[in-house]
Design goal:
The protein is α/β, with parallel strands linked by helices. The chain is built from eleven helices and eight strands. The protein has helices at residues 38-54, 79-89, 111-130, 135-148, 185-190, 199-209, 221-227, 229-233, 251-259, 270-278, 292-308; strands spanning 13-15, 18-20, 23-31, 57-66, 96-98, 177-184, 211-214, 238-241. It has a six-stranded parallel sheet with strand order 5-4-3-6-7-8. The chain is globular.
Length: 323
């Protein structure tokens, strides 16, 4: 695999056969997530594996930032529904979270500003951590206070709605953390479309923050980098990650299948399918959920049988949590 990055020397540690470097990184993906697919989730796993294996980066958290309702995209369901879908999809992930900040603004926010906000929030949190005399003890208490809104640091689970729980991943160290934009090759190609991006935004996204680009079938990101003076100038800050297991699942194709009443099982999480049909999203109000309703019936049946035998059921409905 060819990598554009010439990373500085580092002394990495090893975890499960992969290198984990000293440069802490947050991966942030912006998009509609309408709905979130398994490929959206896979991007984070692929990118983290690649960065740990080939660079001195240590990915501490992943963030998914759904676009504002005023983005104006046809067929875009409400941000509250998309946030809920993301929470359900990410329930099994210990390190990827939803960031609601973008959806809570008064209007659509350019990607550059979304990344800058998260970078500023991280820097502010690290400064507060640095003011603690003990990172290991007081630092953890401070992050818990920031995340859970605790007045009393001894109260660990006093949650305040809307607080960014992912900040807890920063505890234990005051080392710098940089935010990088995780995206598909189609976003890289979109830089070449006249009027779509401001030149200063492209310069900041690539030069200041950096990109982690997941390839797709038929794309040639190296060609687009070559044809762009800005991308060529900052190519050391662009990580091209080859997805060898081709997966062309897209939200557009999932929505089309849902409109037609076709099964989308194994394309999105089961809990996402259940939520879509329960709330009649994507024109599913006159259609039955293929696979989803059967899953729910089997879960209830199995749970009932297991409770009869006083055994804790191993499969439960996935709960919600919040890049």
């Amino acid at each position: 695999m060819f990598n554009l990055i010439c990373s500085p020397a580092a002394t990495p540690t090893h975890s499960k056969g992969k290198m984990t470097g000293s440069h802490r990184v947050v991966l942030l993906a912006c998009g509609s997530f309408n709905p979130p697919t398994n490929m959206h989730l896979r991007m984070f796993e692929i990118a983290r594996d690649f960065l740990h294996r080939t660079t001195n980066h240590n990915v501490v958290v992943g963030l998914m930032s759904p676009v504002h309702d005023k983005y104006g995209k046809e067929g875009l369901v409400s941000s509250s529904d998309r946030i809920q879908l993301l929470r359900l999809a990410l329930n099994s992930s210990s390190w990827v979270h939803v960031s609601e900040w973008e959806t809570r603004q008064d209007d659509w926010t350019p990607t550059r500003e979304v990344i800058q906000y998260h970078q500023n929030l991280i820097k502010s949190t690290l400064r507060k951590l640095g003011s603690s005399s003990s990172v290991s003890r007081q630092g953890r208490e401070l992050v818990d206070s920031l995340v859970n809104g605790n007045v009393d640091p001894s109260v660990k689970r006093q949650r305040v709605d809307g607080t960014p729980s992912w900040l807890a991943h920063l505890s234990g160290s005051t080392d710098p953390v940089s935010v990088k934009l995780l995206c598909g090759a189609d976003l890289l190609e979109s830089f070449a479309k006249p009027g779509l991006w401001k030149d200063e935004d492209i310069e900041a996204l690539v030069g200041k923050f950096g990109l982690v680009v997941i390839t797709r079938e038929g794309s040639n990101p190296y060609k687009f980098i070559y044809e762009s003076d800005v991308l060529t100038r900052h190519q050391r800050n662009i990580h091209i990650v080859t997805e060898w297991i081709a997966n062309e699942v897209s939200s557009t194709k999932v929505r089309r299948a849902l409109r037609r009443g076709d099964s989308v099982k194994y394309l999105v999480q089961d809990s996402v399918i259940d939520y879509i049909y329960k709330n009649a999203l994507y024109n599913t109000h006159n259609k039955s959920a293929k696979g989803s309703s059967l899953i729910s019936v089997e879960k209830r049946r199995s749970t009932s049988i297991l409770k009869t035998h006083s055994i804790i059921p191993w499969h439960r409905y996935r709960q919600c949590h919040i890049i």
